[in-house]
Amino acid sequence: MKTFLERDSASSSFAEALRFTLQWEGGYVNHPMDKGGPTNKGVTQIIYDAFRRQKNIPTQSVRRIFENEVGEIYKEMYWNTVRAELCQTKIAVALFDWAVNTGPVRAIRHLQGCLSVAQDGIIGPVTRERMAVAGDDVLDCFLKRREIFYKSQPKKKKDVFLKGWMNRLEALGEYLSEL
Prior knowledge:
This protein is mainly alpha-helical.
């Protein structure tokens, strides 16, 4: 049976984004400092429940999430939400990964800041127009904003997560440089 990544060859940018992000979103965790609560492969229990309800499937523990569900959730609830397909591949990968890591609205707002448009978290016509022509300067701004965001978190949270966040961000920069 083919994996979601193998079946979703229509979007090579999505495949690149998913390939990178899944390296950082491991198995089941339920860290008390993470507001997301129970999470598996980067999918929180709340998101998983919403996804299954939308599909008219009974909810279950996120521990039991299926691989194809992970791919569908990432595509429908993150990639499509941030309209990553409108960006060149490098920005699309960075946007998707940040959306998975901290939420789509935050990722959109920070990208909008780099695009010099209203930071409303909504992909409207002006944002779409700018996303389509954004280049490496926008990517650099976006990655820097992510670093600043991580470093601005409360001390308790930074003490627990900052090293991992920064390792992920550094790896993202390296990954993007190879695309």
